[in-house]
Predict the 3D structure of the following.
Amino acid sequence: MTVAEKYIVNTYSNLFDGLNSISKIELLENLAKSLKKERKSRDEDFFKSFGAFGSEKSAETISKEIKESRKFNRK
């Protein structure tokens, strides 16, 4: 843990000192849920970022269609 991370943890700990026991338990539960969710969504987002464009057409066909659809207005 870096010095900055320790400082952040200590700062949040001081904030939570004023909470009652039930609020602290709910906070812990929410943190645990976010840790589980965060891990899955980061991995999924990373792998979803590759190959996002799906098509049966070849790259050459797609490129040709894009070039043919361009219309220029030269005055």
Remarks:
- The mean pLDDT is 83.
- The CA atoms of residues 26 and 32 lie 10 Å apart.
- Residues 3-69 form one domain.
- The radius of gyration is 25 Å.
